Amino acid sequence: MLSKEKKIEITEKVISSETFKNAPTSMAILRYLVQAEIENRPLKESVIDLEFFGGQADTEKSNPRVRVNIYNLRKKLAHYYTSEGAEDEWQIIIDKGQYGIRFAEIGKKSAPKSFPKIKAFLPYILLIFVLIAFGILQHSGPVPKLWKAFFKNKQTTHLYIGDAFGYGGKTISGLSGWTRDFSINSLDEYYKLLEQQPELRTLTSPTDYNYATRMAENATHALSRFFTGWNKDFEIKYATRASFSDIKKGNTIYVGRLKDQKDFSYLFNEANKYFKISDNEVLFAGHPQIPDTVFYTNSSNTETDFALVSRIPGPNNTEQFFFFSNHDIGVIATVEYFTNPEKLKEFTRRHLKEGVYFTALFKAKGKERISLNLEKILVVPFD
Fold first, then answer.
1. What is the mean pLDDT of the chain?
2. Where exactly are the structural domains of the chain?
3. Which residues pair with 322 in a beta bridge?
4. Which among 300, 298, 271 has a CA at the least distance from the CA of 282?
5. Can you count the helices (H) and strands (E) in the chain?
6. Is 235 left (phi over 0), alpha (psi -120 to 50) or beta?
7. Average pLDDT in the 138-151 region?
8. Within 10 Å of residue 146's Cβ, how many Cβ atoms?
9. What are phi and psi of 5, to 5 degrees?
């Protein structure tokens, strides 16, 4: 029987693979499922929706996001075990129609020797030619002006995912699980909570996994595709585990909420002369030509979202690109916009002159977290 430590070791090996490298949502939900298996907790769709995705406890409506994410995770695990993990002794399996995971001992299998016919390789040879041709086309244009410094300054670029901190304990269902408290978004804040409410010391505990929404998956996909077009890459990190010493060591891209991300809000406020983030408000004041305005970004309507985008200089000759919104739609829509070469060219021509630094406010509209329309509200360039 596998020990808890061995199960975590197997899980972390899978999560650290290339297959899962750009899939923070799949990483987080896999950790969640493994923890549930370790604690021998039965799982069903409504429990996962409530505990992991923060769904409503009083709704009877089925939410497809659980099935979709479990399906995506099952596909990633299958891909991993047919590539990087082909020689792994143990496999993590999610059986069809199930939500829980199980560990299966597979053992190493020696493949039979054979002499493949060249005919079998023809599809792969054709694919290689297609990829080469695609690569040539991707590199045929100049690097977009707004991203040029990210590709030319030889600094490592870090993508910080605006995830949510949580802690273990009793959930609303009465079972053990992961709790998201909107006023607690770091270990430091969690321990301050324990100082204020010491009775929680025996009821809760810190966890080693965080929660990220669909925004993280979509934004990572769009940025990966864009960077790959110029043969560049980036490292993915979680915002709740970032520090200023980390941030100053390279270029920064942040995608996530306006609320609860104090480090990135601080960096934004320091770099912007006219804009300030204050909880769920964006304050605009002091501009010589545009009147002062307060934008209220907190909305219970998930079909409309305000997004704040800022391209600013970072410390130590680094560069920063921030994408803020309180719902998924705003970040997804603006990341797609600013990774589209044609839209980048038009935005630069219309709003920027010689510089590359600006802050812009957008209004995104969508359905089921899919962007359908993006409207520019205010664009303010600066040196």
1. 83
2. 1-112, 150-161+213-381
3. 254, 310
4. 298
5. 12, 15
6. beta
7. 81
8. 19
9. -65, -40
